[in-house]
Design a protein that fits this description.
The complex is a heterodimer.
Chain A: E1 2-10, E2 16-25, E3 30-35, H1 41-49, E4 56-61, E5 64-65, E6 73-76, H2 88-92, H3 101-114, H4 130-142, E7 148-152, H5 160-177, E8 180-185, H6 188-194, E9 197-202, E10 207-213, H7 225-241
Chain B: H1 2-9, H2 11-15, H3 17-20, H4 24-31, H5 34-48, H6 60-72, H7 75-107, H8 109-123, H9 131-138, H10 142-166, H11 170-178, H12 183-219, H13 226-235, H14 239-264
Classes of the chains: A alpha/beta, B mainly alpha.
Chain lengths: 263, 277
Amino acid sequence: MLLLDRVGKTYPNGVRAVEGVSLEVELGEIVAIVGGSGCGKSTLLRAVSGLDQPTQGRVVLDDIAVTEPDEKIGIVFQEPRLLPWLSVAGNVGFGLEHRPRQEREARVAAQLARVGLTEKAGVWPRELSGGQAQRVALARALIMRPEVLLLDEPFSALDAFTRVDLQDHLLDLWADGKPTLVVVTHDVDESIVLADRVVVMRPHPGRIEEEIAIDLPRPRDRQSAAYDFAKRRVLAALDRSLDRAASVDERETKTETGQAMWW
Amino acid sequence: MSVFLMSSSAVPAAQSVAPKRSPARFLRPALGLLLPISLAAFWEFAVYAGWSSGRLVPPPSVIFKTFAELWNTGELQTHALATLARVFAGFSCGVVAGTVLGAITGYSALTHRLVDPTLQALRSIPSIAWVPLFILWFGIFEASKIILIAVGVFFPVYLGVMGAVMSVDRKIVEVGRVFRLSGFEMVRRILLPAVLPAYVLSLRAGLGLGWMFVVAAEFLGASQGLGFLLIDGQQLGKPATIVAAIVAFAILGKATDAILAAATAPLLRWEDRFART
C-alpha cells in the first residue's frame, strides 16, 4: 500500500507548492490526480517517486519511507525521455543491465511485443513517432515490474487520437500485473477513463479538494451517461477548487458529452 | 537494422542513392578544384613562358619534384614522423588534462568556482607567449615542444568537455536516478554518451590547434620535423622546400582529422543531425 502522510513541499524560495496531502492508495488501485496549473500535482508525484524530498510529512510504501528512487516505483514522464544513444530495445532494457543477457533479451522482446513495437527493436529513438516513443517509455518502466507506476501527464503531449489509444493501451498493460497507478493529468476525460478514484487538488498551496470514486466497469464507454455524470462531478469539483461559479450541472441527467479537455 | 529501416522508411533518401552513382556526384566537389588548378596551370605556364623566373614562387612542377626528392631521400618521412610524434604526444597530454579537468569542473560547481576563473585567465594568454618561459623551464628539446602543443590542445578540449557536461539534460539525468544508477554508472551510462558528440568536436578542434602549435614549437630550434623543414627552406632560400612542407602539413592535418572523425563516427550514429553525411 502506498501512503502519503501529510506530505508538504516548500521550495527554498518560500513557495508552498504542496501542503498536508494525505492519501492512501491500495495495491492495484488506479488513482488520477487532477487540478489546475500550480496545484502542485507534479510536485506531489515527484515526492512520491523519491526524486524530490517532501519538506513535511512522508511517503510510505509497504511500511518503508520513500526517500530516494525505489525499485518498486516506476515513473513515466510527460516526455518519453528515451536515451537517444540507445536503440529502442536498449532503452527498454535499460534497467535490466545487471541481469543475465538471456533473461534481459527475453524480457525486452516480450515487453516490446506487449506494447506492439517488436519491429522497432533496433531503431533509434529519433525515428519513433511521439506515441511510439511514449509506449517505449511505458515499456521501459513496466519491464521492471514495479509495484507502483507513477505517470506525470503521460499523454498530454500527444494528439487526441493517439492519446485515447494509449489510455486504452495503458489499461491493457495494467491488467497484466495490476500495479498501483498514480496518474497526474489535467485532462478530465483521461482521469475518468483510467481511474478508480479521482483526486481533485486545489492550488496555492496544493491541497486535496475532493476525492471522487469512479465506480464504472472497465472498459469504460466514453459516451455513456454514467461516464458523463462522473465527468460532470469532477468538473464541478474543479470549479470549486478554483473558487469559481459552477460551470456544469452536477445532477445526473443525460446530456451531450462536453469538451474533451477541461480548458 | 536501423540503417535498413532508415533507408526503407525515408523514400527521398532512397531515391537520391541512384544519382549518386552518376558523374554529377564527382563533378560537384570537383568544381571547387577548378580555381586552384587553373591558378597552378597559369603559374606553370607563366614560368615556362619566361614571364617569371619562378625563383621565389616555384611553379607546381618544381614543388612536385622537390616533394618527390624529399620523399625519395626519406627526408620527408623522417621529418613528418618527428612532427607526427610531437603532435601525438602533445595531443594526448592535452586531451587527458583537458578531459579530466573539464569533466570535474563541469560536474562539480565548487571546483568550477575554484578552478575555472584561473584557467579562463590563462586561456586568454596567447599560447605562443609561453614559449620563452617553457624553454627556460623545460629546455630547448622535446619537453618544451610537447608541452606547448599540449597547452594548445588543452583549452578547446577543456572548454568543450566542461560545456558538454554542464549542459547535459537534467531530464535525462533523472532517468538515471529513477533507475538508481551509482555515481560511476551515471557517468558511464548517462553522462559519457550524452557528452560524446560535443567531446568529439572538441577533440577535433584540439587536434587542429595541435597542428598549429607544432609549427610554432618546431620553429624554436628543432633539428627535425616539418617545421624545421620550413625554417631550413627559408634559410637556404629554397621556397619549393617550404611549399612542399606546407603541402605535407595540409595532408597530415587533413588525414589525422579524417581518422579521428572516422574513428568516432560509429559512436555517434544515433545523433539526430540536420545534415546526415
